[in-house]
């Protein structure tokens, strides 16, 4: 199933309410309020998304179909941290590995679709700008964007700046090293080159500075991404075809920093820079035949190179240097097909698959020499990765619909899991060694969705289960001594025989009168390995309940976010502690002013964590408390 | 006119150079450094070369060349080296891997361990004995860089004084390195014979971090007084190699340390 979260259309759909439509909300917070997504939190910046608790290499994250990989060894920079809502026209989430066209995964993927200006018969100019302020952390944001459309050319520019100081947890204690500052700019242009064809170009630059990570031993001096692409698109409305071929390149430059921490927190000062470079292409073709048969095909290729180093400066001794990612590369070529066929007016089937060939290698002699101390011989590896999916939708009656999905997913180990060198994992406190001989992790996923929909009430219930083979986890290496001062030991990534994840979601929307809407999104997951140990980073029961009330140009909403306690942990195996339950209440109100000539002004005020509760959630690394009460005011204007 | 001068100059250089290339007169084509040269009583030219610019308190790779008075080479006379530290009140030598002639380079490669620096304490000489004739070279031995210790002496549980000296890695790098150490015992102040048949266990450590490294291979006896294994340096910086030394099942020393820095 392809969930589409059209950021500009949320208000129209009326599912998630005002909060998510606001372009000033950072991408990670937009994702966090999406049902089925949970976030791993290391600070007040760059939370890392998980789909049904599956994360990192288990899912793919792409920007407009482009492969891009974070440069930080400590996962401080998930791809979602380099894009902002103002860059996007939508976020597409696929939990079905077989339907994930962009890459092999066991848990699906998230694709951030970039905004694209449209051609128009007459030249038009439109724009938007806005600004916001938050009391907690003395945070501010400002954005502006302009779109020019025309018959043969279209251009769009947007940019955003945001900064925050240290926020205060519930009760008023400041959480030190939770500050950040960033800007982001995006330029997109299109030129028509034929009746049904155009060329488009995109350039996105995103730079963060002085970013605190209170849950980690280091902060970030800078995190910079440069993301560019050129595409040729041919669309034929007569044949219902669209064919897009894109060339792209992106570069991420990331540097961790401990110089702002007090000396007592820094046993040894160190520099830990990392870079990620990805070049690639893809070509997608889609066609709808007789309105009943929608087919999508894609071929693609990419090459990603990661390099990360650590230089330590002990007092009174020589500096020490090593690679944490010893000049690693991965090349891949793949092909994918999705086919959606309506069998009858009531039933349709979906078939999908992807095959990809991956080649992992080291691109420098120094990198190879360093790993020679751990693994003998040539460490390049080749893999053939296959994903398959099949689904069926059946309209049982006018109000009842049933969907069943089966998918087989597979993924290669990430380069960090394959070749990382003493990378400290704050979640369990161990140094991690890569393992080039990891087998592919595979999953078989079953998904059942039952939907009921009437004019005032809708409900969907969705049980799911994943059966994993060769699940990748860290296993203790008893003879290795730790590199990171204070680490408990050294682990190496290993395949464990099998693991299981299951859960269900229940979504209810009730609209007793037309201006009032109550919704409840509930998700539960749990996961165990073969030996019966609870797997780490699995979110407990979560329930997001919202009341929206619309009164002419005013809208009000109240939200209760409930997280159950997570007691299903295996501290002795995976180093994870239990987490108590939490309940947070948010309130907000907005007013829209529409101007006669042209233009729309929206004022927004809200309070997050109304009762100033001190709390954290299960996926919050180091149990750093989340922000306490926060008053948010925003104004956006568009014309 | 100027051009003709250049031409002559070039011609001269060419003739001179080609003369040097004469088959029998090859100067040791070495990127080695000349340490000292001298003549034996019978007029043989004896030169001492070093692989490194400076001679250090360490294992030093040295080379001897022996030529006739006319710079031609005459076979391969027996050559031995004896380092001597003259401390005024006493003299002592140090371990040596004696020269063995290498016909391809016409050099005698050797290894000499200097156990202390030249200075106020005393001065070093190296005496080359060529077919019963001796030439003595004064040499200047510098301390190894700060925070390094490439050779050390310990008294074993058997009461014997041993030296253990790092031969390789001479240029350590991150990753798996060949490890070669030389073990000698002090028979007298002037005699340091090689020791065979010990068991060595090596444990690397970074003293400024307190961690070690995996996948090291204990050095095993090869020949002379040499023991070869592998050492894994996971990063640059200060490394200490801890050796446990056993003779059969008897522990001669629990922890003998050498220090490297790169």
UniProtKB/TrEMBL annotation, chain A:
Localization annotation: Cell outer membrane
Domain (TonB-dependent receptor plug): residue spans on this chain: 28-108
GO biological process per UniProt: siderophore transmembrane transport
Keywords, in A-Z order: Cell outer membrane, Membrane, Receptor, TonB box, Transmembrane, Transmembrane beta strand, Transport
A GO-annotated cellular component: cell outer membrane
Keyword Protease found: no
Membrane-topology descriptor: Multi-pass membrane protein
One GO molecular-function entry: siderophore uptake transmembrane transporter activity
Residue intervals of the TonB-dependent receptor-like beta-barrel domain: 238-610
Keyword Cytoplasm tagged: no
Protein family (similarity comment): Belongs to the TonB-dependent receptor family.
Protein name: Iron complex outermembrane receptor protein
Organism of provenance: Dyadobacter jiangsuensis
TrEMBL record, chain B:
Name the UniProt record assigns to this protein: YtkA-like protein
PROSITE patterns: PROKAR_LIPOPROTEIN (PS51257)
Domain YtkA-like: 160-242
Organism annotation: Dyadobacter jiangsuensis
InterPro entries tied to this protein: YtkA-like_dom
Domain of life: Bacteria
């Amino acid at each position: 199933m392809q969930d589409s979260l059209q950021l500009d259309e949320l208000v129209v759909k009326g599912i998630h309410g005002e909060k998510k439509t606001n372009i000033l909300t950072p991408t990670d917070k937009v994702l966090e309020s999406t049902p089925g997504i949970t976030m791993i939190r290391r600070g007040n910046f760059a939370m890392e998304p998980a789909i049904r608790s599956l994360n990192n290499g288990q899912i793919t994250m792409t920007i407009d179909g482009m492969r891009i990989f974070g440069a930080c060894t400590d996962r401080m920079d998930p791809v979602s941290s380099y894009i902002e809502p103002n860059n996007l026209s939508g976020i597409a989430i696929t939990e079905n590995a077989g339907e994930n066209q962009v890459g092999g995964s066991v848990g699906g993927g998230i694709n951030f679709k970039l905004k694209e200006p449209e051609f128009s018969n007459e030249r038009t100019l439109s724009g938007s700008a806005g600004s916001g302020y938050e009391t907690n952390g003395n945070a501010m944001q400002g954005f502006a964007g302009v779109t020019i459309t025309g018959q043969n050319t279209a251009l769009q520019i947007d940019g955003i700046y945001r900064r925050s100081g240290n926020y205060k947890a519930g009760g008023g204690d400041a959480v030190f090293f939770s500050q950040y500052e960033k800007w982001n700019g995006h330029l997109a242009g299109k030129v028509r080159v034929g009746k049904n064809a155009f060329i488009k170009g995109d350039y996105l630059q995103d730079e963060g500075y002085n970013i605190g990570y209170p849950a980690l031993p280091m902060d970030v001096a800078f995190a910079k991404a440069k993301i560019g692409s050129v595409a040729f698109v041919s669309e034929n409305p007569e044949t219902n075809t669209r064919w897009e071929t894109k060339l792209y390149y992106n570069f991420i430059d990331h540097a961790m920093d401990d110089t702002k921490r007090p000396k007592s927190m820094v046993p040894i000062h160190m520099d830990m820079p990392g870079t990620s470079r990805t070049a690639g292409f893809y070509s997608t073709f889609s066609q709808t035949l007789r309105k009943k048969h929608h087919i999508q095909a894609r071929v693609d290729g990419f090459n990603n190179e990661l390099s990360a180093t650590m230089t330590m400066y002990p007092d009174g001794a020589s500096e020490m240097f090593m690679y944490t990612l010893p000049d690693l590369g991965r090349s891949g070529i793949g092909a994918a097909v999705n086919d959606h066929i309506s069998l009858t007016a009531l039933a349709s089937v979906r078939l999908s698959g992807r095959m990809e060939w991956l080649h992992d290698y080291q691109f420098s002699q120094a990198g190879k020499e360093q790993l020679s101390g751990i693994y003998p011989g040539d460490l390049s590896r080749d893999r053939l990765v296959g994903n398959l999916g099949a689904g069926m939708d059946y309209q049982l009656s006018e109000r009842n619909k049933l969907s069943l999905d089966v998918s087989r997913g597979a993924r290669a180990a990430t380069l960090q899991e394959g070749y990382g060198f003493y990378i400290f994992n704050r979640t369990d406190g161990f140094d991690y060694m890569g393992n080039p001989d990891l087998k592919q992790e595979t999953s078989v996923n079953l998904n059942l969705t039952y939907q009921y929909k009437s004019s005032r009430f809708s409900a969907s219930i969705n049980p799911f289960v994943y059966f994993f083979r060769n699940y990748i986890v860290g296993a203790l290496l008893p003879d290795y001594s730790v590199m990171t001062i204070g680490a408990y030991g050294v682990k190496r990534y290993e395949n464990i025989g099998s693991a299981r994840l299951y859960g269900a979601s229940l979504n209810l929307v009730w609209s007793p009168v037309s201006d009032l809407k109550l919704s409840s999104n509930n998700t539960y997951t749990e996961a165990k390995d073969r030996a019966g140990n609870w797997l780490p980073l699995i979110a407990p029961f979560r329930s997001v309940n919202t009341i929206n009330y619309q009164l002419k140009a005013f809208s009000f909403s109240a939200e209760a976010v409930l997280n159950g306690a997570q007691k299903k942990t295996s501290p002795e195996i995976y180093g994870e502690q239990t987490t108590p339950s939490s309940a947070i209440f948010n309130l907000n109100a907005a007013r829209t002013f529409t101007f006669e000539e042209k233009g729309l002004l929206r004022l927004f005020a809200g309070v997050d964590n109304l009762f100033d509760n001190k709390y954290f959630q299960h996926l919050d690394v180091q149990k750093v408390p989340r922000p306490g009460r926060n008053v948010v005011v925003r104004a956006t204007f568009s014309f | 006119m100027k051009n003709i001068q250049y031409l002559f100059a070039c011609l001269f250089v060419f003739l001179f150079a080609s003369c040097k290339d004469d088959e029998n007169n090859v100067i040791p084509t070495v990127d080695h450094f000349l340490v000292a040269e001298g003549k034996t009583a019978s007029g043989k030219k004896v030169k001492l070369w070093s692989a490194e610019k400076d001679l250090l308190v360490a294992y030093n790779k040295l080379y001897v060349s022996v030529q006739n008075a006319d710079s031609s080479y005459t076979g391969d006379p027996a050559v031995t080296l004896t380092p001597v530290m003259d401390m005024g009140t006493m003299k002592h030598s140090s371990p040596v891997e004696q020269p063995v002639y290498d016909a391809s380079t016409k050099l005698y490669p050797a290894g000499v361990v200097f156990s202390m620096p030249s200075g106020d304490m005393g001065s070093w000489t190296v005496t080359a004995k060529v077919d019963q004739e001796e030439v003595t070279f004064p040499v200047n031995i510098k301390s190894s860089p700060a925070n390094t210790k490439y050779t050390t002496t310990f008294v074993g549980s058997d009461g014997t004084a041993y030296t253990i000296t790092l031969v390789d890695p001479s240029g350590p790098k991150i990753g798996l390195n060949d490890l070669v150490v030389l073990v000698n015992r002090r028979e007298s102040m002037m005699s340091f014979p090689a020791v065979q048949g010990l068991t060595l266990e090596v444990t690397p450590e970074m003293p400024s971090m307190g961690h070690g490294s995996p996948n090291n291979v204990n050095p095993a006896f090869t020949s002379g007084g040499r023991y070869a294994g592998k050492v894994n340096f996971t990063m640059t910086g200060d490394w200490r190699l801890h050796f446990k030394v056993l003779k059969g099942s008897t522990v001669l020393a629990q922890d003998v340390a050498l220090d490297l820095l790169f």
